[in-house]
Amino acid sequence: MKFTDRIYETAKPIWNQSHHHPFVQGIGHGTLDIDKFKFFMCQDYIYLIDYARLFALGSLKADRLDVMQTFAQMLHITLNEEMALHRAYAKRLGISESELTNTKPSPTTIAYSSYMLNIAQRGSIKELLAAVLPCAWSYYEIGKKLSEIPGAMEHEWYGEWVQMYQSPEFGEVASWQINLLNEFTTFSSEEEKNQLEEIFLNTSRFEYMFWDMSYQKAMWPLDEK
Ligand SMILES: Cc1ncc(CN)c(N)n1
Fold first, then answer.
1. Has residue 150 been placed in a domain?
2. Which of 68, 95, 157, 160 could lock 90 by a disulfide, CB 3.0 to 4.6 Å apart?
3. Is the CB of 127 under 6 A from ligand 1?
4. Closest C-alpha to ligand 1, atom 4
5. For 140-162, what is each residue's pLDDT tens digit?
6. Exposure b/e, 184-215, CB count within 10 A at least 16 = b
7. Which Gene Ontology molecular-function terms are recorded (predicted)?
8. Selection from 44, 15, 30, 17 nearest residue 141 by Cα
9. Number of folded domains in the chain?
10. Ligand 1 midpoint to CA 170 (Å)
11. What pLDDT does 222 receive?
12. Residue of minimum CA distance from atom 10 in ligand 1
């Protein structure tokens, strides 16, 4: 059994809950409150800035030129293609680019980005891959599932989002990461595999929390006025 098949099976209950979350279902059925989507887009934009840094770190840590190139390509796609979707949405939603970049991160965004960056800075390239993999893989899976809902790809607000994440180009990013992680873990001990699985589960949990945070538009639970 491939290592990624094993961790996919373990994470399935978490991924199922993400898929059935009202935020995700609201995108697919076109019923999501636009203010929640706006909140998500702003938080996701600043999340992606840190997410892109992980690919830069992957390129730095790689000891093979082809792996460096792959990480560099993923960095390019995130900064110039995925984030272009957010910039285009922001324009339509009346959010300026500086407002978008200067979004104040929510506690969940801080926790998720910090966790990933910590793993990427302190850990091995395998740990870095285990941390980023749920991001591309689960979004591709969600995009594919939502694209099967009649009208989801044509929705005036959420159609472009579904189109982007179900696209073969986005699926290729997930496949790159899956193949690399399988290759790098060929000779890993059971102990190392367990550690990598735990990282994969943690970022899968953070993915669920990100949907929920967006649905609740959850910032700090404090009144500072
Ligand atoms: C929180 C989150 N996770 C994953 C992705 C897909 N790169 C994203 N845009 N945002």
1. yes
2. 95
3. no
4. 135
5. 999 999 999 999 999 999 999 99
6. bbeeeeeeebebbbebbbbbbbbbbbbbbbbb
7. thiaminase activity
8. 15
9. 1
10. 11
11. 92
12. 44
The whole-number average pLDDT for the span 23-33 is 98
Ligand 1 contact, 47 CB (< 6 A): yes
**pLDDT at position 223 over 90:** no
C-beta of 140 in contact with ligand 1 (< 6 A): no
Residue 91 confidence (pLDDT): 97
Enumerate the H helices of the chain as residue ranges.
Answer: 3-19, 22-29, 34-61, 65-77, 83-93, 97-101, 107-122, 125-147, 159-166, 168-184, 190-216
Give the residue numbers spanning the domain of 121: 32-216
Residue 179 lies in a domain: yes
**DSSP annotation string for 90-121:** HHHHT--HHHHHTPPPPHHHHHHHHHHHHHHH
Q: Is 213 in the pocket of ligand 1 (CB under 6 A)?
A: no
The confidence score (pLDDT) of residue 139 equals 98
- In this predicted complex, what is the ipTM? 0.99
Q: How far is the CA of 222 from the centre of ligand 1 (A)?
A: 27
- Model confidence over 33-42: pLDDT tens digits? 999 999 999 9
Catalytic residue among 82, 127, 141, 207: 207
Decide if 97 is catalytic: no
* Most ligand 1 atoms within 8 A of CB, residue of 47, 89, 110, 209 to mutate: 47
